[in-house]
Structure formats: C-alpha cells, structure tokens
Amino acid sequence: MKQMATRISSIAMLATLLPAVVRADDKEVIDYREHIMNTLNEQAAALGQILSGTIPDDNLVAHLETIALTASTALKSFEPKVQGGEAKPEVWSKWPDFSKRMNEFAQKTAEMAKIAKEKSKDEAVASALDALTCKSCHDEYRQEKKKAG
Amino acid sequence: MKQMATRISSIAMLATLLPAVVRADDKEVIDYREHIMNTLNEQAAALGQILSGTIPDDNLVAHLETIALTASTALKSFEPKVQGGEAKPEVWSKWPDFSKRMNEFAQKTAEMAKIAKEKSKDEAVASALDALTCKSCHDEYRQEKKKAG
Prior knowledge:
The structure is a homodimer.
Chain A: H1 2-17, H2 24-51, H3 60-78, H4 90-93, H5 95-118, H6 121-131, H7 134-141
C-alpha cells in the first residue's frame, strides 16, 4: 500500500513536468471502451464460427449471453467525452442518435439472450441475426485503425 | 443456402489440390479458443482498470458475470487436440491437470458472479481476486506470442 502511494505520488510529480498533450485518464477511458468493444468483436467472431458450422454449437447460448452482458456495459464506456481510438467525433456530436442506437443494441441483445436460454437454438440464431447489425453503427461511428506492429 | 453449398463444394475441391500442411479446421479450432481467451483478457483488463480506481465501477457486476460465462466456455474450446497458437503442448499431455484447473476456474468465477449479483461490491472484489489467478495456469500452459505487425 505504501509502495502504491509512493508510486502514485511519483507519477503526480512527473505529470507536472510533462506537457499536457494527453491526460493519462484520457488514455484509460479510451482503453476501457476498447476492452469492451474488443470483447464484442471476439464474441461475435466466435459466434460467427458456430453459425458457419465450423465449430460445434455447445457454447452458443453462453456466447449470446456474453454479448448481451457486454452490450449492456458499452454505452457507459462512451459517456466521457474523450475523443480518440477508433471512435469518430460523431459519437459525441450526434450523441442522441449514438446513445439511442447503443441502448437499442443492449435491448435487442438482451432479448436475444432470453430467447437463447428459453427457446430453441434456431430461434436464438434468428434473433442474433436481427440483433447483431454491428456494421450499420460502425460505418457511422467507427474509424477502424490498423493494429500497431 | 445454394450459394453456401457451392462455396463449400469449391473449397472441398480446392482442398484436394493443396498440400495438407495445415487443415483448415485446425486453424478454425485455434482461432475459436483464442476468441475465448482474448475475451477473458479484455474483460480482465477492464476489471483491472476498475479495481485500480481509474474507471468508475458501474459495470463491475457485468464484467464479473461476463468473465464467469466466458470461463464456462473455455474448456470445451481446448477439447480438440489441435496444437498451435499460444497453447503449449502440455495442455494435452497434462490434460487431467489442465482440465481440472479449467473446471475450477469456471466454478470459482461462477461463485464470484453469484456473489457480485447478491452481495456487496467489496465481497465481489475479494472473490474476484481469489478466482482470477490467471498467471499460475498461463505460466504452465501458455506460450505468449508477439502479435503480428
């Protein structure tokens, strides 16, 4: 604990010496929302493998539930108005539309997870195809960057 | 559906012409388990940001539930004995130990998610620190690779 306090104090001292180009907390905010969006990306890819028949569907329901849970966390991570990463400035300049669509995404994926738990796999898949229309939002609000080498 | 069948048939024909160095399904198997392990990585990182106090804890319970759900899917993704990716050969040569530890991980994170939903955030955090001992298994079973540039 003392070590941690010393470290934090050193960082605070250092921060006063550096130009304020990027605030450390801005980077944290961007990293956090990227952890969430990357989770959606990984889970959608896993789901895609199951839907294409290359991977058995044992985990189908769990993937759909994971996507729904993660969707429920996404909007909160964009609330701080910190531009950067893969988010276009339109996220905040068109916030009413962005937040409406994010809420709809959370709602639709929650319904999808409910169907997955309570009904057949076929019905779950149909609802997933309806809920996971990622591209329409990404076209408007995401500027995909190449991964650093 | 017809298009898909044509495509599959073309791939099957192509496969007979190619050297059988890597079977396509082996790559799919490796990709699938990496989607799952990457999800755990992203969610653990998001959780770490909350525990260190840099990100508000609004999504704490959802992150813990997501980790538990994903942990429940992990063992299945290693069942096909396909070496490669970041998995060491020991995953399969020491399968009884590996699978036991994966099952314990799933069980402990499920308890953690239950505590998170039913009890206080402090208790949830304590159970998370107990359940998420990723390093001990990674030291034994994972060979981390540099990401391709």
